[in-house]
Amino acid sequence: MWHYGSLRCVRREHGRLWAVASSELAPAHTRLLYKHGFHAGNAADVLKHCVLICLLQQMTAKNKPFSYVDTHAGAGSYNLLGDEATTLGEHKAGLGILRSAVEQGQELPASAAELLQISDGLDGAYPGSPCIAARLCRPMDSLLLVERAVDQHASLLDAVGADGRVTAHLSDGYAVVRDRKLCPAGGKRALVLIDPPYQFGSDNDQIATVVEYCTKHWRAARLAIWFPLTRDASKVDRLYEAVCKAAGDSDVLTVELQTRGHAKTSVSGSGRAADRGGGDVGGGGMLGSGMLLVQPPFGIDAQLNELLPALDSLLTEGASVSPTLPRVSWLRRS
Ligand SMILES: C[S@@+](CC[C@H](N)C(=O)[O-])C[C@H]1O[C@@H](n2cnc3c(N)ncnc32)[C@H](O)[C@@H]1O
């Protein structure tokens, strides 16, 4: 059993660790709290953050301000020598691989090199999405960060709270995006990162609601949604269906990378999910991850088409685990 203030122990479920809060202190909906510190810097984080860096570079290429909105901001940065990160040591299969590749004289894709540089600037801590955005946003840009867990929000304030461009809410990220008092909409340029723990089974519906809101009322917002690839490939298909339906006529691009297990099945007629099934990771663990981009910036697909094979080769250490992934493909394109 580990102790985390009011959090008494952790439990493994779906390949991730959850901190179990003491029942007298936590309301029912927060009894099982996802703690990103256990997974920070893993292969899924590296994919997510490299894609985020590419998006931020596209957003900052235009000489016009934009808002970065992080609906599930987490703790901001993560000490890789701390109790949480060392419990599983997942960062060794992510950031650690990037670091040793550089030590061996290998050249990294530009976004991965940037990620490593940001981590070096934090004395080797792993930068969460808020720290990455704070590093790449310009003085004219603003950052709206939302985190629902009290302890994570406190760490977030420690990590980026002193930055005058940052507003950090202790709230529900899905609701904040649709709150006109807190969040800009209309024609204001924005990049919205939605990075939920997929904990209570309602995330697809909530993501769809945000996508529908943004495509109707905030056409200048670009959305990036992280998702896990698991043995149950139908979960991703359900997310795709929900997002494409909510996106109306907006473009939707998906990026998928498998970093563990072995794909045993061939691509189905839909060409979407079958190759994610049949992985041999025990306990329903994650096989990889992906990012869904709604209204993505022009030209991002070409950039990601270069990044994904390079990350695949690095993170699987040259032994690609899926014959059909990595994949960058349009689910909808006008
Ligand atoms: C995967 S972590 C975020 C990691 C972060 N985006 C990064 O890349 O560094 C998910 C976070 O969402 C928080 N969370 C869960 N549900 C939330 C909600 N409805 N609104 C805001 N935050 C939420 C969790 O406490 C957790 O810290």
Description:
The strands form 3 sheets. An 8-stranded mixed beta sheet has the order 8-7-4-9-10-12-11-13, with helices on both faces. Helix 1 (43-60) packs antiparallel against helix 10 (300-315). Strand 9 (190-194), helix 8 (203-217) and strand 10 (221-229) form a beta-alpha-beta unit. With 334 residues, it is an alpha/beta fold. The chain has one domain (37-332): Vaccinia Virus protein VP39 (Rossmann fold). The chain has helices at residues 43-60, 83-88, 95-103, 110-121, 129-136, 150-160, 173-177, 203-217, 234-247, 300-315, and strands spanning 7-13, 16-21, 32-34, 67-70, 77-78, 126-127, 142-147, 166-170, 190-194, 221-229, 252-258, 288-294, 327-332. The structure holds S-adenosylmethionine. S-adenosylmethionine (SAM) binds at residues 34, 36, 48, 70-74, 128-129, 146-149, 152, 172-174, 195-197. Residues 34, 36, 48, 70-74, 128-129, 146-149, 152, 172-174, 195-197 line the site of S-adenosylmethionine (SAM).
